[in-house]
Design a protein that fits this description.
Blueprint lengths: L3 H4 E7 L3 H12 L5 E3 L13 E2 L9 E2 H14 L3 E3 L3 E5 L5 E5 L3 E9 L3 E3 L15 E2 L2 H4 L7 E5 L3 H10 L5 E5 L9 H9 L3 E4 L2 E7 L6 E6 L5 E5 L2 E4 L3 E3 L29 E3 L11 H23 L1
The structure holds NADP nicotinamide-adenine-dinucleotide phosphate.
Length: 312
């Protein structure tokens, strides 16, 4: 990172998930020698998913980490450079855009933001203090620690049921606690979870506290219909109640919606000319590997046109 020329790039891509590496693939094939700064999680959230069954081309499903490696390999094959570095400050007031990382500073003629999203926390007592001692946001990372243990899964969406099903490989029982009567997850996952002998549902119920000294021992629950409180003993709790976009460093510089998702038009252009965004940082609607990959490709195609128009 000391060679100045390496820090001045035509296209800088922040993030290494499906959107980031798809953008890099297209930019590399357009001979723009893109640089990807991976961020903290190489491969993004998709890499933490055990199996992805709805990415086209893999009829038997594909491991999330494996798909991430394939994305990276393909992007690198055409000339993408990858740095294990994270942007912590940007200056988008003039071009070239300045991006500051732990390791130094980059100057980029165009920027593609694919910084993804992070799990939302319940914000209940015990959640932070017992993190890593029973509290988790990643079944693929932590599921194996709960062999023959009792586990709670919070949430009623696709993530909660998919991850809950994954945890049944290890846990003796999985109790899904969901705040409403109806689940939000798609029909296939609902059916699989409801038919699974290790999975039970506690509906109309929220977790109000995670209890334990040194490690999780139980959760305090509240039935939202009756107000009744109860204690559910468990060794672990996996929280899957949605995500919020990793867009803090762009606040005040890129136009965002009320939840912090970067606003893009259908050409993936942000409010700043030369800055594009793709994937979950800019998508509160679909959040699929395939849609993020598509957005990333579109962003790179449009960024390439932007540079071509300037040099014409
Ligand atoms: P999600 O669809 O937003 O579901 C979040 C769940 O958490 C909802 O059931 C919600 O309840 C609940 N929730 C939210 N805030 C809560 C709180 N403070 N306390 C308690 N419960 C709370 O999020 P997701 O499951 O992470 O899925 C995100 C996106 O990825 C979706 O578009 C999903 O389809 C997609 N995805 C797809 C797959 C797949 O296709 N196999 C797998 C994973 C994710 P309510 O229902 O009451 O709102």
């Amino acid at each position: 990172m000391t060679e100045t020329k390496n820090n001045q790039v035509k296209m800088l891509i922040l993030g290494s998930g499906p959107a980031g590496f798809s953008a890099a693939l297209y930019a590399a094939r357009a001979e723009l020698a893109p640089l990807v700064l991976t961020g903290m999680q190489l491969g993004g959230q998709a890499a933490l998913t055990y199996t992805i069954e709805n990415y086209p081309g893999f009829p038997e499903g594909v491991g999330g980490a494996q798909l991430g490696e394939l994305f990276q390999k393909q992007a690198e094959h055409f000339g993408t450079r990858v740095e294990f570095d994270t942007a912590n400050k940007v200056d988008l007031s003039a071009r070239p855009f300045k991006v500051t990382t732990d390791a130094g500073e980059y100057a980029a003629e165009t920027l593609i933001v694919t910084t993804g999203a992070s799990p939302i926390h319940l914000n209940v007592p015990g959640e932070d203090t017992l993190l890593g001692r029973g509290v988790s946001y990643c079944a693929t990372c932590d599921g194996a620690f709960f062999k023959d243990k009792k586990v709670i899964v919070v949430g009623g969406g696709d993530s909660a049921l998919e991850e809950g099903l994954f945890i049944t490989r290890y846990a003796s029982s999985v109790t899904v606690v969901h705040r409403r009567e109806e689940l939000r997850a798609g029909a296939i996952l609902q059916k699989r979870a409801q038919e699974h002998p290790k999975i039970q549902f506690v509906l109309n119920t929220v977790v109000t506290e995670i209890l334990g000294s040194g490690k999780m021992e139980a959760a305090r629950l509240k039935n939202v219909a009756t107000g009744a409180e109860s204690i559910l003993e468990a060794d672990g709790i996996f929280i899957f109640i949605g995500h919020s976009p990793n867009t803090e460093i762009f606040k005040g510089q890129l136009k965002m919606d009320a939840h912090g998702y970067i606003e893009v038009n259908h050409m993936m252009e942000t409010s700043v000319a030369g800055v594009f965004a793709a994937g979950e940082a800019a998508d509160p609607h679909f959040r699929q590997v395939v849609t993020s990959a598509g957005m990333g490709a579109a962003a790179a195609i449009q960024a390439t046109r932007f540079l071509e128009a300037e040099s014409a």
